[in-house]
Amino acid sequence: MPLIESSSLTLLLWALIGYGLGSIPFGLLLTQLLGLGNLREIGSGNIGATNVLRTGNKTAAALTLLLDAGKGVVAVLLARVYSGEDAAQLAALMAMLGHCYPVWLGFKGGKGVATFLGLMWALAWPVGLGCCIAWAVAASLTRISSMGGLMAAAVSTFLLVLTGNGTMLLLGIALTLLVFWRHRANITRIRQGTEPKIGQKS
Q1: Are 73 and 124 in contact (CB under 8 A)?
Q2: Domain ranges in the chain?
Q3: Can you tell me where the transmembrane regions are (predicted)?
């Protein structure tokens, strides 16, 4: 899709909208709404779907996954429809930053995998599909959710090139680096063999 120029003010608006949507802590809100306790005091303390699963409520975890992905989809599609591709890419980056560093939670948010997958689906659905497959394969083989997220991020830039979406390459690299940065502690635990398995309480 060709880039469409947007004014600086328009881009600023979509940056704020993207960040605002991304910063909605669905995992925290759902666990509180369903009376599952303080998510910050459960498992890793993370606000993402993997940690919500540690409450034992699979429905809450699934909803968190869908909503965290969905807010990325909404940010991209709204910006693309109303202001074009450059606005969509900026909204995508800001939605990811909003999820990982939400102002409402003292800039202590999630790891970003679900939002990353949603963004990839909205930016270029074949890439999103490929990333989801990579996540599923890696997570199934290792039973480690973070391995799935890292694998999905790792293949995304290659998929962007292979599918002819080179105009999104810089954004893809930025999102991939952010996923890896947010998972630096997980990477250390994976190397040490102490990373919790999917569904493990701690």
Answers
A1: no
A2: 8-192
A3: 12-39, 119-138, 158-181
